[in-house]
Every structure is written in structure tokens, then in C-alpha cells.
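ugh ok so i messed up the first submission bc i forgot one of the chains. this is the corrected input, ALL of the components this time, i swear. 237 residues overall. if the numbers dont match what u have on ur side tell me asap before i send this to the collaborators (the ones from the other lab, u know who)
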Amino acid sequence: MLVGGAPEASVLSFVLAERKALLKYAKRPLPGIHDEPVPTNLLSEARRKAWS
Amino acid sequence: MASIKFYFESMAGTHLEDALRALRDTGSADALYDHKLRSMDPKEIDWADVSVARDIAESWRITYSRRALLFAAFSAEAYANDFLFDEWSGDKDRKALQALSTVDKYALLPGFAGRKSVLERGRDPLQRIKWLFDRRNELVHAKPHSDKDLTWEPENHNPVAAAESISRSQRVPRCWLAELRRHPS
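and heres the new structure output, hopefully the right one now
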């Protein structure tokens, strides 16, 4: 199986998974004043999925 | 006997974490808005204050994006130097190679080290790294511009550009490291 063109479980596949997570976050609109703070580690979820 | 090659991360990882933290701040309300305003009941806040607060938040978003770009560039440079110091031990060789620009290091060092280089200057990720260092250089060597205002440049200093730069900055070094671990010298 290929992950964004990279072989599954390759280093590149992890990097691509993290890139996807970062871009998804970066494209979010400006939050509201009372919105909840974002977790300090942006990549913990992407890393958990990619490395599990 | 098999040899084990350790890799001790230098400032590269620290700069990368700083870049990621700055990117996080571009989209988190606690970093973008005044804490007193956030602690107030929404009904107590005047719409005019909200409007001003959003303008200020947009300004912080640009600032944090600029910060993320700078730390992504610092990280990319540190990773390239880690590779250089890992592959070359002589002081003179290191000094000569350190004089290369970071983009040139990414393009040339794997080949100089006798490894397969898969990076082409006209394509990503090297193209994005070149873009990143153009941004880095105009900020680090700041001078008055007649055609642009670097204090407010959302076209370049935005979260998406920061995310792209961070992901490219870690992509190349991590693939290099994987290659080093597969084929230790």
C-alpha cells in the first residue's frame, strides 16, 4: 500500500502523514475569542496514527 | 561485529519544535487574543472590541507565521550541518562545505558523500526550501523595501506557507537519516 506515493511504514510515509496534518491545521479559519486552546503538540495525533 | 551508529540531535530538533509551536500559535485562540478579553463573558464584550480583537489576532497570525518560517529555516540549516558533520571529520573540509548555502548543501552534499542524491533544484522539496531561504534572508538581512512591507506580508507569512515549509524542512533530513541508518558507512 502506498501512502501519498510512499511505501507504507517508510520514513517518507510518516513525513507525508505529518504534512497532511499540518496543512489541515494551517487551513483552518481564524478562531473565535472564546475558542478552546489548541494542544501544544500539533503532531501528536498524526504521529500516533502513523507510528502505531 | 555489527556497529551501531548513534545520531545525537543538535539544535535542529529544537528549532523544529519552535517552528511547530509557532505554527500552533497561528491558529490557537489563547495565543491570538488578549487574555482579559477571553476571560470576559461574551455578552459583556462590545462588538467594536470584538472587531478590533480580530484585527489584532490577524496581525498575530502573521507574526507567528513569520516566526514559524524563520525557525523552519533555522532547523533546515541545522539538519544540513548535522549531515555535514556526520559525514566529514576534517576541519578544513567541514569549513569549506559549511560555506555553501543551505540550499546548495541539500542539493550537493549527498552526492559529495557518495550517496544517491534525489533532490532536484527545480522541484520540491528543494524548491520550497529555496523559497524558505529567500524569505529567511530578506528577514534576517532586513532593509527598507519600496515594493513590499515585511511587517505585514500575509501573502508569504501565513500558516499554510509555514506548514509547507516545516514539512519540507523535516522531510529531507529525515529521509537522509533513514538512508544513513540503512547504509551506515
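quick check: The radius of gyration of chain B is 20 Å. that seems consistent at least. Chain B has eight helices and no strands.
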